[in-house]
Amino acid sequence: MNTINKWIICSLVLLTTLVGCEREFMPPPLVMPEYSWPPSNTTIAEVKARYAHVNTAPIRIEEPLILRTVVTSSDAGGNIYQQIYLEDASGGINFGVAQFSIFNTYAVGQEVFVNLEGLYMVRYGGELQIGYAETNANRISWENFQQHAHMNGWPDGSRAIPQRVDLRNLTDDMVGRLVQVDSVYFVNGGERAFVTNNAATNEPIRNANGNSLDVRTSQYSTFSADRLPIGYGTVIGMLGRFNGSWQLMMRTLADVRNFDGRQPDTGTPVDPTTAVIFEETFGTGEYPSATGRRLTLSPISICVLPWFTQMPLVSPISAAWQAYKAARTCGFRPIAARACGYRASIRQIARIWY
Question: Where's the DUF5689 domain (predicted)?
């Protein structure tokens, strides 16, 4: 018995010792990245000018050109795919990088020094970008990109301020920049999603002067199924040009801001139950009816739902009849109108005139 008690006591002592030696897990301290290599010696605009002769074949950059830039893009929304856009005061340019979720490492507002030596200048869709030769889509491998792109300090979103642009005055130096377009509306706002037919889609935005710009959205974006907003508002995104056609790529749905939900033409809120979008005055006079009665008609107002405006109109009354049939087919109550001083349904108006 004494031997057993000794073993029990020894085991308890050993267990207590082991527990006492166990330490709580301490995560490694965060170390702010700091760039200590040679300073920048060129700008994005100068690099683009120096390699403006690049055509279809990528050209290796043999000079130790160093850019001091800021990250302005984000692939968090899935709309920008295996690319990162960098800017300096002179302009912006995108880098093709074979990596997902780049934003987890290179966040918006992160300062980055890039040594271009050993990378390639590539022309795609008529525009210059930085990549690598003989790789899938001329993209730089993730490991290689990190060897060339050195972060400096913590990200600061206030560094990535979009440039306000006017659709009438888009210029070459804006390609690759983060831009902001104010007081525009989606032509198909409220009617379509950002993506249709499960394929990359261009949806035009337009200002009050009729100038337009395509907003391009990938079917893989997180907001592809979201409905286009109604009314005037602001759109932010990366400005690009593909074979001469300007286009804007939003980063996330947050790049659509302050849309007022009002009809672009009238500036009034959309109310599909009461909106009067067609009104015809026939004047006064006596007209025969199907019942033999002669009716004195005063001006009438026909209410038609907004979705009906796309239907072909033959005459005001036949339009009213079409509207009535369409409304009944879709389960709506007959659309009300004012005729001859009393309220009547579209069916009653049609009976009077036919």
Answer: 40-256
